Q: What sequence folds into this?
């Protein structure tokens, strides 16, 4: 194999593919990146659960395949001088030259690398910006505890032209609705996708349109010459829709920017896992925290309250995560009592809210 490729193009593609490399591979070859040169250059990584493949323009003098230690290649690629990169296979080495720099990397046996999974059938497409926004809103509510795999995923429910993403860690539920272009107008499918994979996909596939594929226990995402597949989790999930449609007797509308900034300031004196207290009254909300060994903080923000005055408390980061997901100027906080969860949502238009975030309250001291 002999290729010439732009340094920045190579470094970006290697970094993107290498993100799925396992930290503790079950087999040594799974720590490698597979480079395949044909009409262009493709770079692939696979750990049996997640695959990543990037295709880039390259000047191919001699076609071929080579398996190179992925993390080492990523470190080298981003540190090369500003010049084209030439990669040539010579025996058991892949010789990489860039300007005056040269590296001889010991290759791994290509024949031992597992066959990459094929992309399942496409079911629709969505703009990369909308996709990234939706994932960013719901992913913070997914659990990091692998003992309950169901809670580490993002539920994706597709019904015709509407997609809903939802996640929960038992203490909050986040859900986001958005429109997309389905392949079939009557498509109706559900899947549980590992949240960490969706976050990586959303972070890297912002450009252009994201094509979504689903089938045989695998989800696939393609955009701008890059593709990812992931093995799905068990479809079991809570009835999140029923929990997001309660009736509320108290409603407070606040401007997101000032409210979120005030909470972050007051939270500086909140000790770990202690509460942020919100006291809603006509025309304002008082934000309070602390009072222990560190100190205390308080700030008042304007709000429009409908219903009775109420005082309620939340874990500070949970509250920040929910408000950070609001993309409208105003956030609506729906309340019932100090001991019941609260529903944070964007101020709905004619079609209702796109983002909803149900968060448990804490006992007031």
A:
């Amino acid at each position: 194999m002999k290729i010439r490729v732009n340094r920045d193009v190579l470094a970006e593609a290697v970094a993107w593919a290498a993100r799925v490399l396992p930290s503790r591979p079950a087999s040594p070859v799974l720590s490698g990146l597979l480079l395949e040169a044909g009409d262009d250059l493709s770079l692939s990584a696979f750990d049996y659960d997640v695959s990543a493949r990037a295709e880039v323009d390259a000047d191919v003098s001699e076609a071929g395949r080579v398996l190179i230690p992925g993390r080492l290649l990523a470190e080298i690629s981003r540190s090369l001088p500003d010049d084209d990169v030439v990669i040539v296979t010579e025996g058991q080495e892949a010789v990489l030259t860039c300007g005056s720099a040269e590296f001889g990397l010991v290759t791994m046996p290509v024949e031992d690398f597992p066959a990459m999974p094929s992309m399942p059938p496409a079911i629709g497409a969505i703009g990369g910006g909308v996709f990234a926004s939706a994932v960013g809103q719901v992913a913070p509510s997914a659990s990091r505890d692998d003992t309950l795999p169901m809670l580490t995923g993002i539920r994706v429910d597709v019904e015709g032209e509407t997609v809903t993403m939802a996640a929960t860690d038992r203490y909050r539920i986040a859900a986001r609705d958005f429109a997309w272009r389905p392949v079939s107008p009557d498509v109706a499918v559900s899947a549980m996708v590992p949240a960490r994979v969706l976050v990586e996909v959303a972070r890297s596939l912002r450009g252009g349109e994201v094509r979504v594929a689903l089938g045989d226990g695998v989800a696939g995402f393609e955009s701008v010459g890059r593709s990812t597949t992931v093995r799905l989790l068990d479809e079991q999930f809570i009835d999140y829709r029923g929990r997001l449609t309660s009736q509320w007797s108290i409603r407070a509308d606040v401007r997101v920017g000032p409210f979120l900034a005030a909470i972050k300031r007051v939270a500086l004196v909140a000790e770990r896992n202690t509460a942020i207290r919100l006291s809603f009254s006509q025309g304002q909300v008082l934000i309070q925290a602390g009072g222990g060994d560190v100190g205390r903080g308080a700030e008042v923000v304007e709000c429009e309250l409908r219903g009775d005055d109420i005082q309620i408390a939340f874990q500070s980061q949970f509250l920040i995560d929910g408000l950070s997901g609001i993309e409208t100027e105003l956030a609506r906080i729906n309340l019932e009592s100090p001991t019941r969860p609260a529903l944070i949502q964007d101020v709905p238009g004619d079609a209702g809210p796109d983002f909803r975030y149900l968060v448990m309250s804490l006992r007031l001291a």
User: Anything to note?
Assistant: The longest strand covers residues 172-179. The first helix runs from residue 7 to 18. The chain has three domains: 2-112, 122-242, 246-359.
